[in-house]
Amino acid sequence: MRASTLLRLVPALLLPSCAPPPAPRDAASPEAAQAAPGAGVAPSSAGPGPAAAAPLGPEAILERADLAAYHGWIRYLTFRADHADERFGKGSERARHDRDELTAWTQRILDNPRVLSELRGVFEWAYLSPVDGSGQPFKLSVPLDYDAARPAPLSLYMHGYSGNHLEHSLFMQERTQSFEVAVLGRSRGGRYRALSEADVLQVLDYVDAHWSIDASRVHLTGGSMGGAGTFWLGSRYPQRFASGRPVCGFGSDIPIGNLLTFPLYATHSDDDFVVPVLHARGPIARLRELGGNATLDETTGLGHASWDYAEGNQRADAWHEARVRPASKAVTRLRFNALDGLARRAYWAEISEWGKRPAPASFALQLDAANHVTAQLSNVARLTLRVGEAPLDRAAPLELSIAGARLVHPAPLPELVTLAESNGKWAFEAAAPALPFRLHTPGGANQLYDGEPLLIVYGTSAGASVTAALEQAAQVASHGTSAAWPSPNGELGDDRVSHNQNLYGALKIKADTEVTPAELASHHLVLIGTATQNALVARMADSLPVHHDGQQLRFSDGAQAPAADTAFGLVHYNPLAPSRLVFWVASDELAAYGADALIPQLLGSVPTGADFIQSRVSERTVLMVRSFDSRWGWLSRNGSPALPQSRAGRPAFSRLLAETARRAVDADFAFALETGELGPAFAAGSVRLNDLTALLYHEPIAVMTLTGAELAAARAALAAKPEAHLQPEPPAELDPRRDYRVAISARQISPIVAATHLAPKRYQLTELELASALSRSGLELR
Known about the structure:
782 residues; alpha/beta; eight-stranded mixed β-sheet; globular
C-alpha cells in the first residue's frame, strides 16, 4: 500500500522538472523501493500493544504535552484524511484508506506512547511546524541496528523541482549504521529558500531531538533543485554539515568563501543545458582557489540526468562516507559573507550588527599564532567571537589585528568577545547595547519566513468590495512558501496543483479585528491593506516609518512621494511587538493585491538590500527603493544620481548592466539580456543608482574565455533571441583562433547557455558583484 502524496495548493520556479536521483550502491529492489514510503502503519519492532477499551480521536493525542513528538504526524494524517474526503469524496476508497490510517495510528500511539523510539527501517513521518501548526512530512530511514548509545551519521536528501520527499527518494531502503532522511521543503518547488529552507532545518532538529545523531557526520545531497539546495544550505550553515554532494546542482549565486570548511563532491554532465555545468564548474574552481576541499566529477552525454552517472556516484559515495565535520576548536580560518539576518554565523564567529550599507556583510578571520587573530571585515558594525568554541586559550590574552590596528583583550577571556566599530575605529565592546527593538538586517521580506510563527492579516475597514479583495490577497499569500505571492499560472503537477505552493495546508490568515494580543507578541505579520483599509495597520501607523494618506507617502525622515496609482511594501519591526517583523503591502488600487503582485515578488524572491519599494500599479514599474541602517534609520537617497531616460528602457538598461560587468572584469564583451536581472521596468528620473544597487544586491560576475569560432557561434545562436545579445556588438569578422573574454552575470548563465549551448572549460566565477561594480561606475557610461 503506497503512502499518499496528496498535495494542496503556488509560484513557478526557475528550475525544471527533475527525474529521481541516482540510487546509492545499496539501493533497494524496485519492489522494496515502492513499498518504502510506508504504508499505512510504519514498521516497528514491537507489537501494537493492548487494545484500548474504546477508540479515542486524534484530539486525545494533540491535547497531551507528553505526546508532543506525535503532534505533527497526527496533524499530517488528519490533513490527508480531510483532503481525501474533499478531493475524492467521503466514502471513496482513498478517503476510507486515509481515515483508517489516521485511526490506526491514533490508537497505536495511545496504546504505546513509546512507539516512536521503537520504529526501524524506512517510513514517512511528520513534525509539527511552528510556522502554522501544520504537520510537515519527511521520509526517514532509521538504521535497523540503531542504538541510542551509539550516535549514527545522517544523510539528508533534497528532491528536485516537481518532486517530493517520496517520489524522488525511491532509492531508500532498510540499512544499518546510518540514517537517511528525505525532506519535502513545504512544496515541490520551494528552492530550499524561506519556508523551504526552514523545513530542512526543522526536520533536522526534529530528528536530532528524537534519535541519537552524530552531529559531526550530517551530510547534504540532492539533485537539480536539490543540488542547488546543497550549495545553498552549505553556504549558509557551514558549521552544521560535514559535506555536500550536489548532483546537477546550481551554485553560482552563493558566497563561495562560505564553503571553505564545507567539503563538496559535485557530479554533472557537460551537456546539461537545463542546469548548465558552469553552475558547478565556477563555484568548485573558485572554492579550490581559496583552499577548500572541492571536487567536480564531470561526465558527458547524460544531459540533465547526471543522477545516472554510475561511476561518479560510486566515487562520491566512497568520498562522502569519510567526511567528518571539523570540531569548531580545530577551525583556524573562516570566511563568511552574510546575505540576510537568518544566516550570519560560521563556527565561532557571528555578525552581531550590520554596517550602514544595504549590502552583504562579511568577515575573514585567520588564527595566525596562539591567540592572535587577523580580521578583515566589510559592512560589519559588530562581530562576536564565541571564545569557548574557538581555537583560543581563555587563560591568555587575545590579540587581534584589524585595519592596521592591534587590539588586546586581557585574560581571562569571557565566553563571548564582541568587536565593535565606532567612527572608523575598532575596539572590544564591554557590553552589548540594550535596544527597544530587534536590530535591522538586509534580506527582504523572506526573513519573516524563517520557521517561526507567521500570520497573514487582511483589512476589513474599507467596505465589502475592498475587504473581499484583501481577503483574496491573503488567501493567495497563504499558499506561498516565501513572501512572493504565488502566480496562479505556475507549472502544475498531475494533481493540478502548482509546484511552488505549500502542499499540506496553507499559512494562517486572519481578519485585522481578530488578531489576539498573544498572536501579536509571538508572530511575524504579513499586513495587507493601508491604515484606512486595515485596522491593525491603523493601530501601529503612528509608529511606522511610512505614512500613507491616499495622496502622499510621508517618511519619518521628512521625505515625501506621490501616492496615486502606486503600491508599496515595507519590511520593519512590529511597533507593537518589537522583537517581531512585519511585511506591509499597501495600495489604494485593488489591482496591486493580485496574485503575482510586483511588490511581494521584489521583496520576497531573493535576498535583497531593499526594505521599502514603491511601484506604479498601472505600468508595473519601480518608482523608488529605500533601505534602513542597522538601527532602523532611513538611509538617504540624496546625492545618488537618478536613472536617465537614456538608460531606462529594457534594451538600454540591459546594455548598462552588461557594460558594467564587462568593465568590472576587463572583458572584451558581455552578454546583455533584455528580460533583465530584475524583471520590472524602472522609472527614469525617479529611480536612483542606490535603488538599483540595493535590488541587485548579491549578483556575482563570471568570465568565459571563448575562441573566435565559439564567439561567432554564440552570436549566431543569439540572433534568434532578440532579447539577448553581445555588448558591444562584435566585429563581423572574428579571428577564429584568438581568445576573447566575455562577461556574464550569475542570473544570466542559464538563459544564455540554453540559447547557445556554451560550456567553455575556461570559465571563472569571480567574487566581484554587479551591484558594487555599478555603484563604482555609475549610470552614465560612455
